[in-house]
Specification:
The chain has eight helices and 17 strands. The chain is α/β, with parallel strands linked by helices and 319 residues long. Helix 3 crosses helix 4 and helix 5 packs parallel to helix 8. The longest helix has 16 residues.
Length: 319
């Protein structure tokens, strides 16, 4: 059994989900390999090796400075052909899913998205994933021998903290770096907000906040918890906040340790994107709101009284 982890990067550093994927690969046993693609992959790979990335395959080229799924796919396809992994892992992010959809098509491999569990049973790799908005948990299996592409939801596995590995500089065909599209620049979102997909804590607002002027109140609560701000589709459609904050079927799928839903009724379209959170706290004045059916803790009350009280308490406790 050989597992290949694809190490995606941000600002010339491996994203936290990469260390979670290494941990997931280690849990399966067998050989662990990690592919690092960057303008200077060796400089990027050092941290991964010290945290158990196993045989770490580095490919360096200026064309790899920014993510381009066409270039990345061609390079990784060559590495797969050379090293023959049974299982290939990437995070279930926009980039990870775009990359693996292309790779599965190029190589004829099978693909499963949004995995929340991995296991090796006999000669089969078994993936657990939610379906139908989380109402069904499916077990999908494929025979080892691959390639089997699986994107794993962030925050499911713990980050690998220590281990060992070795660097192996790889050479691929120069044609791999050619593309019809060239990424010249990547601009980060302004405002210093915490990325939803990487957040351990999220505070999300729904229609119950009544208006755009009250978004700041929810942001203040999020700030008191060092949390990311999220939103339901209703308030995004109303123009009270930006789409990048939307959680749900047509927004982001998140998996934080704590999800605080403020003024969110709990429509299935929203639950699809957050119901796998480790702990869910709901604040709503309607005791029959569907959100309470999945919440670990519920506060039935006026959010305009509850939220300021919680914010003051958290600020005092964390000061």
């Amino acid at each position: 059994m050989k597992t290949l982890v694809i190490a995606l990067q941000k600002n010339d550093q491996p994203i936290s989900a990469t260390f979670e994927l290494i941990s997931a690969a280690q849990s399966l046993g067998g050989d662990v390999c990690t592919a690092v693609l960057a303008a200077d992959a060796e400089a990027l790979a050092g941290t991964l090796v010290s945290r158990g990335s196993g045989t770490t395959l580095t490919v360096s080229n200026p064309a790899l400075q920014y993510f381009n799924d066409e270039v990345y796919a061609k390079v990784i396809a060559e590495l797969i052909k050379k090293h023959s992994p049974d299982l290939i892992l990437a995070p279930a992010t926009f980039y990870g899913k775009a990359l693996f959809g292309r790779l599965a098509g190029m190589t004829g491999g099978a693909m499963t998205s949004e995995a929340t569990g991995l296991a090796l049973e006999g000669d089969s790799i078994v993936v657990t994933r939610p379906c139908y908005g989380g109402s069904v948990v499916a077990r999908v299996s494929a025979k080892a021998g691959g390639p089997y592409f699986v994107t794993v939801r962030p925050k499911i596995f713990p980050e690998a903290k220590e281990g060992s590995g070795e660097l192996v500089a790889e050479t691929v065909d120069a044609a791999c770096f050619e593309s019809g599209a060239v990424v010249k620049e990547v601009k980060s979102e302004s405002g210093g907000t915490i990325n939803l997909s990487e957040a351990d804590v999220i505070v999300a607002a729904g229609r119950g906040i009544r208006g755009e002027e009250n978004v700041a109140m929810i942001n203040e609560l999020a700030g008191s918890l060092n949390a990311a701000f999220g939103a339901s589709r209703a308030i995004v459609d109303a123009g009270w906040t930006e789409y990048k904050f939307q959680v749900g079927q047509t927004g982001r799928t998140v998996n934080p340790k704590l999800y605080v839903a403020v003024g969110i009724s709990g429509a299935i379209q929203h639950l699809v994107g957050m119901r796998s959170s480790q702990y869910i706290v709901a604040v709503n004045k309607d005791k029959d709101a569907p959100i309470f059916n999945i919440a670990n803790y519920g506060i039935v009350g006026d959010l305009f009284e509850v939220v300021p009280a919680l914010t003051a308490k958290f600020k005092a406790e964390l000061a």
